[in-house]
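Entry 14. Ran structure prediction on the chain below.
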Amino acid sequence: NEYKSYLSFGNKHIMSDLIECRGCGKSDTSHILLSCLHSYCKRCVLCQDDLPDKRSKVRCPTCNKSCTINVTHENSFAETLDKITSSTWCRLHENEPWMVYCFTCARPLCDVCMLSDHSEHECYTLTEASKIKRYDLQNILRDFQSNVLPLKSALADIQQAKDAINAKSQSVAIKIRKSFYQLIQNLKEREEDLVKSLENVQKAKLKVLDLQEKDLERELNSTVDVCLFTDKLISQNNEVAIICSQDIICQRIAHIKERSSTRVVMETDDIEYIAKNTDTFTKAVSSLGRVGGTRKTFASTSRLEGLIDTVTRDSRVTLTLVAGDALGNAVSNTGDKVTCVAEYLDTGKRGKVDLSSKGRGNYELGFAVEEEGLLSLSVGINGRHINGSPFGIQCISRRDYALLGQCQRTSGSKGCKIGELMHPTSISLDQRQTKLFISDSDNHRIQVWKYPSLEPMYSFGEEGEAPGQFSYPYGLHAHNDSVIVADCNNHRVQVLNEEGKVILLFGKHGSKPGQLSHPYDIQVDRTKRILVSDSANHRIQIFTITGTPLKCIPSLPEHPFGSPWGLAVNSKNQIIVADFKLSTIQVFSNDGKPLHRILDEDVKSVAGIACDNEDNIILCDRGHHRIKVYDKEGLMMSFFGEKGSREGRLKYPSDVILDKHGFLIVCDAFNHRIQKF
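Output, structure tokens:
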């Protein structure tokens, strides 16, 4: 897509009034600016047949983001500014306009707010603040504009590489046909097979470049759109708009940078035909020559399998490195240079890493855990870090469960205020282990506390059926920057960000695949599948991370379910299920095959369950008001707890998890609190 005017950020000629629409290619001034800052002409946005009402959602063809538009109005640049600047009055003090901007709190204020709560903060008048913000935006724009030419250059390099691949493919095709020229007719079939093989190699290479080209074009278009929007915003001389828009623009720029694609051409024209002579042509037709092309190994798509967050001192860790091509598929290349460095950050000591090739692009990495503390594991291929490297692994001493039971900290009491709980049912730590998410079931909300201090921060959710509302949320699991909640009495699963905004919702009441009936617990396994204890349907359902049902583990005579509750996954990705009604613990393979049971008649109404890094099992023996610990074979190692409300005692515990240091965090449901042991 070509713009009819050039970009020149040193003068006023930055954007033409006529812009070619990416949808129809026509020039039009009635452009609609979507919330993602991409623009299309009014015809392309509003001529869709599936717009049932005046306010509908459309999906941006550039970034695929869902955007709400008003069908009766053009969402023009001016209208966008009106929307941004529609609220210029203080929300706390009626009829008080914004007069100053507080840089300490990053918000506009009225005079009353400034004098009462912000008198010692760094505050400027709107005029002064807009000058500062305008200067910042100009620097942001200048820096971001520098991406345009490299993107265009990278696209030109890709086109050149595609032309070279096409030319080389034609050259190799001629070579193939010449080598077969003097062969008898029964070799023709083999000749065409080789040509087809060549075409497959050609298509594979071109596919890689097409995908890279598409990503770079999307990035270029997004970059240009943001630059145009920002420049026009600066030129409007709207002080409030400039102040309020910087964060939006910076977020958009950060989003583009996060999705930035590599600008190094991902494929070359290294296509060869290797002729193989033989005297017995009729018997060796199937082996006459081959078409090949090496696939480059990319560190950014190579991955490390078997990685766990926490390991025990004096144990041995074995991992598998899978080399990947541009599309993330495993490659069978040989000769890639693999490096691996394990360093204990507290002492600076480096551990010995054993590296061996297992063929077909797989490498085995093994090392002994010699110290406690944080271990940095750096893995590289051909001089570049693989995806996610360096990896942080917490090395801890082996927990002596015989000494378990001393309460380290307790927090929470009965109530509905922040920090108060009503029958909490589940807990989970975020990836950084700085936030503890609590399913505050009878308050129909999720609470977020600081960890390890157990100080309340905020909550989200309320009773209801709408997205973001809950009806007795039970199990939850923090995954990446989101939290997945088993919304029990709404018979569904909600995936929300850490602030409570709904990202995904799936499931409804029923017994068919994908439907749920009183889901109790949620877990994400090592292959990023969502496991749900579908309690009233007496089964475990397995979904993709996007909510598509994959399979279920049904209740069968050889492994019955009464009311499955707690779910855990061990280091082998085996699924461990605690059944509340039958008071049993069952272990399944990752594809749902029953492996064994843990037989313990001295448990009652079991609930939450967890695994440590050595695959020991920690169980909430809810009916006996205690926590029990088993080894990976199912032999009981230890237990603690008794019924009571004093610190260290329990009353119907519903969930248990471990932090990276091996401490147990218990959801003490009927004492309406959280305890750490």
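The CA atoms of residues 471 and 510 lie 17 Å apart. Will compare against last week's run tomorrow.
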